[in-house]
Amino acid sequence: LKLANLGVLSASFTQSKADKSMSEDRTKDLEGNQYTVGYSYNRNRFGFSINHNQRDDEYTDLSRLQYSNLISVNSNKSLTANTYFATKNSGTFGVGYI
User: According to the lineage, what is the superkingdom (predicted)?
Assistant: First the structure.
């Protein structure tokens, strides 16, 4: 959703369903939801964005099936932010938070 000259607001909702054969305990199907909301603002030489992602414990995607022991894959909330500034002669400088 473009907010005129104030940037872009985005949101998404995803559902997943995996058969119980994919589950570690193999007693129930895995069914969950994921929500994402974000905002970004970009101008000629400056920009920033922030995104929040939240998912249920039962939300399953390929990364969770393949790498079930990684903290980054199993976290249910994440926040990312980044900003950049472009100079005329020295290039672009940016900072990010994950």
Answer: Bacteria
